[in-house]
Amino acid sequence: MGIFQLVAFDLDDTLYPEREFVYSGFTAVAQHLDELGVIDAESFFTTATSLFVAGARGNIFNLALERLAVAFPAARVGELVRVYREHQPQIRPFADSLKLLQLLKARGVVLALISDGPWHTQQNKLRALGLEAYFDHLVFTGAQGEDWGKPSPRAFLEVMGGSGVPAAACVYVADNPGKDFVGPNRLGWHTIRVRETSGLYHDASPPPGGEPKATVHSFAALRDHLVA
């Protein structure tokens, strides 16, 4: 075993590319609108994707419908959001994330997942990736309450309490320096940023106290860092 007894992972853009979920969700919404006879699926998907690539966030469905000049009631956009969040995603893990989990598990490392977001959505993602069985502890902060989301340290305290592993032997692996590392840093965990070039937060900067202790650009480098 390396220097870490417990390795906790974020989910989005850490174990799989989040863009895959976004595009999978756009496909589900496009098909839903097509079935309703509102707009053909290809037109909506292409428009929503181009808006996303251009940097639109949060109101993409409204913008896409407006650009397509579709008469869809604003009050029903929430319906599209539900389709997006509740669809069964077509996503795959990063090429080496499964191998890394298998290696850590074989070495007796305690594995945890700490992930923000609507918990049903996050659970669907994890199951679609086929990674659920590798984790000893799962904390979907969205199922716990608003005060559990990062940068709160509550999820990290929960994992420590459930595992009995001291903070100095714990590490959190994540991608978003804007919120991911403040909590574990405060508790004395080690923190590692996975900085994939395709990641949605590749260029994000950390707040004071949120700097990761290390940054890696590949799973090979992450493996070397975790398995000393």
Round the mean pLDDT to the nearest integer and report it: 94
User: Can you summarize the main beta sheet?
Assistant: 6 strands, parallel
Helix vs. strand class: alpha/beta
Discrete helix count: 9
State the low-pLDDT regions, or none: none
Q: Which sequence of strands runs across the widest sheet?
A: 3-2-1-4-5-6
CATH architecture of the largest domain: 3-Layer(aba) Sandwich
Q: Would you report the number of β strands?
A: 6
Separation of the first and last Cα atoms: 8 Å
Strand content: 5-15%
Counted up, domains total 2
Which CATH class of the largest domain?
Answer: Alpha Beta
CATH superfamily of the largest domain: HAD superfamily/HAD-like
Outline: elongated
Share of helix, binned: 40-55%
* Integer-rounded radius of gyration: 19 Å
H/E element sequence:
EHHHHHEHEHEHEEH
CATH topology value of the largest domain: Rossmann fold
Give a summary of the structure in a few sentences.
With 228 residues, the protein is an alpha/beta fold. Helices cover 42% and strands 12% of the residues.
Describe this structure in words.
The protein is α/β, with parallel strands linked by helices and 228 residues long. It folds into two domains: 6-17 and 92-226, Rossmann fold (3-Layer(aba) Sandwich); 19-86. It has nine helices and six strands. It has helices at residues 18-36, 41-53, 60-67, 77-86, 97-106, 119-129, 154-163, 182-187, 219-226; strands at residues 6-9, 110-115, 137-140, 170-174, 190-194, 214-216. A six-stranded parallel sheet has the order 3-2-1-4-5-6, sandwiched between helices. It is elongated and about 55 Å long. The N and C termini lie close together (8 Å).
